[in-house]
Design goal:
- The strands form two sheets. The chain has a six-stranded mixed sheet with strand order 6-7-8-3-9-10, with helices on both faces. The chain has a four-stranded antiparallel sheet with strand order 2-1-4-5, with helices on one face.
- By secondary structure, the chain is an alpha/beta fold.
- The two termini are about 35 Å apart.
- The chain contains eleven helices and ten strands.
- The longest helix has 18 residues.
- Helix 3 packs parallel to helix 6.
- The relative contact order is 0.16.
């Protein structure tokens, strides 16, 4: 399958000193859902911000490697130009304009597009079709709706930009399990019906692997394992370190992987 997004051996440095990502490579195929997994601090958010070119706001920069969208380098584009090319990030923490209504928040997502009012209305109706709860709350101020509704608003606002790819940063954070399930089902519907590609950074490994096609596991700024979602879910080390299906003191996944390889080789 053709790669829509290719990240090739990137390194990211903050404040010209702190090395956060160390040779990260990944690919998102056209029409695919890819999970970027790992514990808090592993480098997931930094990876997404490197792709969406939002690092400069936090004094970060990509110092090595390249990022390509559809075979074209996009490393130097500003974030708004990248949005116009179809890559939109939904930030961690359900960022909404609290003083605006739900519908006003959604309309902000179409700001960068040059489209007539009828097309915007059609897209708005489509968003309400995927998120019927937002249709009911369209006149409510975003600062006074529930966390799940705020996450839906943030996702719906991104859809108003008509993206080819969405970068989702911790969409399950702070939400009840039923709401998480609802949001991931909507992600799968958008992928299948609208052909939107997704790169989802997520700590909730169990949920992410159920909905993704492929996954990468980050630890300390490096990719330590990759594979199909099914193979990762069945991997014994992944079960132990990320699904909590084994007891004992947690060690470095990287160390265990190397030990396992050595043990098998010796056998």
């Amino acid at each position: 399958m053709t790669a829509l997004l290719s990240v090739n051996g990137i390194e990211v440095v903050y404040n010209h000193v702190i090395l956060v990502l160390k040779g990260v490579s990944l690919a998102v195929p056209e029409g695919g859902i890819v999970a970027l997994l790992g514990a808090n601090g592993a480098g997931k958010t930094t990876t997404l911000r490197a792709i969406s070119n939002l690092l400069r706001s936090e004094r970060g920069e990509v110092t090595k490697g390249s990022i390509e969208l559809g075979g074209q380098h996009v490393d130097k584009l500003n974030p708004s130009a990248l949005v116009r090319r179809g890559v939109v990030q939904v930030m961690e923490g359900r960022h909404c304009f609290a003083h605006l209504t739900v519908e006003e928040n959604l309309l902000v997502g179409a700001y960068a597009r040059r489209a007539g009012g009828s097309r915007i209305k059609d897209d708005l109706d489509k968003v309400y079709g995927y998120f019927p709860r937002l249709a009911q709350r369209r006149r409510a101020q975003a600062g006074f709706i529930s966390g799940g509704e705020q996450q839906m608003t943030a996702l719906g606002r991104a859809l108003m930009a008509r993206p080819r790819m969405l970068l989702l940063d911790e969409p399950s954070m702070g939400l009840a399990p039923l709401i998480v399930e609802e949001i991931f089902h909507i992600v799968r519907d958008l992928n299948q019906k609208e052909r939107v590609s997704f790169l989802v950074a997520e700590q909730n490994t169990m949920v992410a692997l159920r909905f993704a096609d492929f996954g990468y596991i980050l630890e300390n700024g490096r990719v330590v394992l990759e594979g199909s979602a099914h193979s990762l879910a069945d991997n014994e080390d992944v079960k132990e370190f990320y699904l909590g299906l084994s007891g004992g003191e947690r060690r470095s996944f990287r160390d265990v992987k190397h030990y396992t390889r050595r043990k098998r080789w010796l056998a």
